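User: My instructor asked us to take a sequence, write out its structure as tokens, and then describe one feature of it. I'm not sure where to start. Here is the sequence I was given:
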Amino acid sequence: MNPTKLLEVYRVSTSPDEIFEILELAKVKKQSMLWQSKSNHKLVFHFDVIELDTKNKKISVKYNSTGELIDPTLPVFIKLHFRETLFKGMVLDFNTDNLSINIPNEIHVREYRNSLRIGFFQDEESADVKPITSGPGSDAMASMNVSLRDISKKGLGLLVSSKNIHLFNPGGVVLFFGSSRIKLQDPIKGKVIYKTEYSKRSSGLGYKVGVELDEMIPEEKFDKIISNKKQLFQTTSKTLLDSNVFPDDFKRYFNLEFDRILTKFRTRKSIQKYIEYIESPTTTDFYLVEHIKVLTIVCTYIARSLNWASDISLEKFIYCSFIHDAPLFQFPRLTKIRDKKDFFKMKAQLFENEQKIFFSAPELSSEIALADSAAPPDVVQMLAMQKELPHGDGFPVGLNYKKIPPMAALFIVAHDLTDEILMNYDWSIERWFLKVKDKYNCGNFEKILEGIMNSKEKIRPNLKIKV
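Assistant: Let's start with the prediction itself. The structure tokens for your sequence are:
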């Protein structure tokens, strides 16, 4: 739900006394959260501590900052457990575990839907669940069908009647058997995280219950549950290749060449562990994995646009795509920092070792290739230059376009387009071009942009731009 639309359904209070009272009472409550709405997802943090500084008119919260980085240029939304209070503000200052925003001039008071992935209208979807209780006859209790308010791969938002709410106490166990659309072969166990009164009492659905599942809902089952939802919160390598974004002949070519090259790379002991990490089903960082996979598609597309798609060049691009972030596999949130400008915007949230690893990552990734005797030609140089920029404002050396060779330039441009695809749900090649044409207006970079825009294999061909 759009944050602006979300705020419209709340009772608005602009009373300084009420605002201060609620903030004071919230200091002793648990289960509060803050989030930012980014282009294709919500960044959520839970926190238990809130400090008021009335003299400087600011609120400080202590949060677990080891996850994705907060963007200090975007508004922060805060939900307090006390009276389900919601408000927003701008970041005043922050460090690795503390964030401060201004005391708001208005707050919005009412229960709201937890920030889970897909929401449903009332009676649109249901879930088959069984609360596990103790006492006589508990084993014989049948599963019950309840309204499903929202769902993620590892969580349920249920609407439960007043008659049955006593079965769903926080900390209690619930078995999830499926929904009206799917049945699970084996139920997934979950834990009740919270229960709160639901405002539409006339419907008989008196409470909302949040359940955190112990395991993820299988991918194919989850896709069926949300199949009627047109909104995609992430662009993935699969959706790119299944959609009409790329021409069919390109998709056939990519699938054939990608499988051939990756099959060869999987047998190479020097890089085997990096390939296995990316392909492992236990790797949980969605962005890191999809970033690498989408980058391979974009590199191949650009190489084809420039007629550079030989066997050896594709090996170079796929090799660099899989290895370029290898030093950051243990620091996945750093992969979303695009450049030095982004870094200094986020720096206060980063631990000292993270700051060092971010700037050393290009050199470390090139050393992986240098130690690989079978690495394709040029990849050591391409990896070392992956964060350089044509006007000398990149790193680690600060090279300009005259010293960045064509293959490295292509990889840099492909990385930029990949970020655009993953970070903007409504991306288009034309809008991206308008954003970057001044950034890449020289040397090999300019030729690469011309090749992309003049390619016969157009991405989403809805606008022609002359370069």
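For the description part of your assignment, you could build on this observation: The mean pLDDT is 83. Try explaining in your own words what that tells you about the chain.
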